[in-house]
Specification:
This protein is mainly α and 623 residues long. Helix content is 56%, strand content 4%. It has a three-stranded mixed β-sheet with strand order 1-2-3. Strands 4-5-6 form a three-stranded mixed β-sheet.
């Protein structure tokens, strides 16, 4: 009987009990899609969604309050547009005053309120384990309400998304959570904010996946979807089912028109690249100003005020502008003026570092360009059947798809906010074309360029982990070489010195007379040990045994290695845990990654096109 391993019983006694040697706790837990913890996180997400929807309502009314106060001198929260003001030249001063307040809040409150919110949320996910300071749940909506309410040419959606994300993050910091769970709650709050603003729960979930979660897993998707649905439900109760951007019913697009819409999408991809570069060029120009950054928003506010004096439609959120553009309610001259001046006003204001969103301005610019293109094509080629309203809808969604590279979000969002199913096919084609052009011409997006300049790399592709789809039994490649518990150190050193097959391995499982693995010794353990030469292998094993089942995934195995800081794992059968079948090493894990690289390598054709015999005879085909 082996004194170090009492499971090796004398003959005639019951068979050894495996768990005394291979403890199930020494293998990674079984992989599951969902567990009870997901239910708990989902409950928190639903609460976050409802709270974010209510915050969105408060923020919208705060914007109305500051708009009424700034442009009409009254205390009210009734919906109103700054475009209808009668202040004359005084309208130039109001955005400047609002921007000064924003600069002071950024300087003495939190610098994180600057910008449109989504890049800042992405940064917290990528580098700060999704921890956002609690004060952001107050500072961001208040600063955005002041900025937009005093004429800032932004949308409310960016700040609401950022505020909802901050709320989810704070909840994840109040209770005990993992970093992944906090990320899920942050994304749930952000999606809820967007759903509550536009009544677009599906595109809100897609936005969270494409820009914040960087993954597609049930344990994160379910809480985010529930939060988004909850927020949209609250909005429906308070505001009804009417689409945010109402427009007349569309006609079926013709085949020729569909081709035009896809081409238009590609053109909008070029525009998206240009707009993104222009915004960051303006930001770079502000960096060169000889004044403190706290005063930059005031400079941007001055530009907003001057432009707003000549073109009042550029002031404020301007959701009504989007509805008018996609409904073809504006003249060509008005659309052209709105498009050009909105872009100038927004790019200067955003580059100055004030607080505001990007979605509404991009939709206004893209929708206007699409409408202009649609009107022009319809006038020149009426037989093609191009509808200026669909062209505007495609332009609106495609510019966002190109600027943010949130492809699915863009197409679905345009449908959810208009409820026009006949626009779905043109939207998908146009957004995809824009997405393709953007990927070809631009490394970063309008969302990621800012954090990329800080040295933070945001994921741009989401693909299945190759380690999750390879079983351990299919990855082990080396011939199994074992050591016996009774082998002496001198004997093993002599064997290694012989250089025979198998001696070059870096790790060896140690087995007893029953063939059960009791530990692992490395080549370094054997050659550098200070133990006497007569020491047995059983005496040299001084680390707890960690192992893996043959039907586990290589991802489970590699995580197990990392968690325990080891480079190799014995592999046993799950139904016969006493049977050792191999060793999984770091090299085996790397070999699985090599398969992924090989799968991306172009191969020679393996199928030949059949050629009639007479053609081969005439030399016109391959034999």
């Amino acid at each position: 009987m082996d004194p170090d391993h009492p499971e090796a019983n004398a003959p005639g006694q019951p068979p050894p009990v495996h768990k005394h040697v291979l403890d199930p706790s020494d293998v990674p837990p079984a992989a599951v899609l969902l567990d009870r913890r997901v239910l708990q996180i989902s409950g928190m997400a639903i609460g976050t969604g409802i709270a974010a929807a209510l915050i969105a309502q408060v923020l919208v009314r705060m914007i109305y309050f500051f708009t009424n106060l700034s442009f009409y001198g009254r205390l009210a929260i009734s919906p109103v547009s700054p475009a209808d003001n009668h202040l004359g030249l005084w309208v130039i001063v109001i955005p400047v005053l609002g921007a000064i307040v924003i600069g002071l809040m950024a300087r003495y409150g939190s610098k994180a309120i600057r910008g449109h919110g989504i890049p800042e949320a992405m940064e917290q996910v990528l580098v700060n384990q999704s921890r956002i300071p609690a004060r952001m749940t107050i500072l961001k909506p208040v600063s955005a309400a002041i900025s937009i309410g005093t004429g800032g040419p932004f949308g409310a959606e960016g700040p609401i998304i950022a505020t909802g994300g901050a709320l989810g993050s704070v909840i994840g910091q109040i209770v005990s959570t993992t970093a992944d769970e906090r990320k899920t709650l942050l994304a749930a709050g952000a999606a809820a904010g967007m759903a509550a603003t536009f009544g677009s729960p599906v595109s809100a979930v897609l936005l969270a996946i494409e820009l914040l979660l960087f993954e597609f897993r049930p344990r994160s998707l379910i809480p985010v979807a529930l939060a988004s649905a909850s927020a949209a439900g609250v909005r429906t109760v308070l505001e009804g089912f009417e689409p945010v951007f109402a427009m007349p019913n569309l006609d079926d697009p013709t085949g020729a028109a569909l081709a035009i819409y896809i081409l238009l999408g590609a053109i909008m991809g070029l525009v998206a690249v240009g707009v993104t570069r222009a915004v960051y060029a303006v930001e770079d120009a502000f960096e060169k100003l000889p004044i403190h950054w706290m005063w930059w928003p005031a400079v941007g506010g001055l530009a907003v005020g001057v432009i707003g004096y000549f073109a009042p439609r550029t002031l404020g959120v301007g959701y009504n502008n989007i509805s008018d553009v996609i409904s073809n309610n504006l003249s060509v001259q008005v659309i052209l003026t709105l498009c050009a001046l909105k872009f100038i006003s927004w790019s200067i204001a955003l580059g100055s570092g004030t607080s505001g969103g990007t979605l509404a301005p991009l939709f206004t610019i893209g929708g206007s360009l699409g409408a202009l293109a649609g009107v022009g094509i319809h006038w020149l080629f009426p037989h093609l059947g191009v509808d200026p309203r669909i062209a505007a809808l495609v332009g609106m969604a495609a510019i966002f798809a190109g600027a943010s590279r949130a492809l699915l979000t863009s197409a679905v969002f345009a449908f959810e906010t208009t409820l026009q199913p006949l626009g779905l096919l043109p939207l998908l084609g146009g957004c995809t074309a824009s997405f393709m052009v953007s990927c070809l011409l631009m490394r970063n997006t309008i969302m990621t360029e800012k954090i990329a300049r800080r040295g933070i790399l945001a994921p741009a592709e989401y693909f299945a982990d190759v380690l999750e789809h390879v079983l351990v039994r299919d990855a082990i490649s080396e011939k199994l070489v074992t050591l016996h518990v009774d082998d002496t150190l001198a004997k093993i050193r002599e064997w290694i010195a012989s250089g025979v097959d198998g001696t070059g391995h870096h790790g060896f499982p140690v087995v007893n007379e029953k063939g059960i693995v009791t530990g692992v010794l490395t080549r370094r353990d054997l050659l550098e040990s200070a133990a006497p030469a007569t020491s047995r292998m059983a005496e040299l094993v001084n680390r707890p045994l960690k192992f893996i089942y043959d039907d586990c995934t290589v991802r489970q195995a590699s995580d197990h290695m990392v968690n325990h800081e080891i480079g190799r794992l014995p592999v046993v059968l799950r139904d016969q845990p006493s049977k050792l079948v191999g060793m999984l090493t770091r090299s085996d894990v790397m070999a699985v990654y090599q398969r992924r690289i090989d799968s991306a390598t172009r191969e020679r054709p393996t199928l030949s096109v059949w050629v009639p015999p007479f053609a081969r005879a005439n030399g016109r085909g391959r034999s």
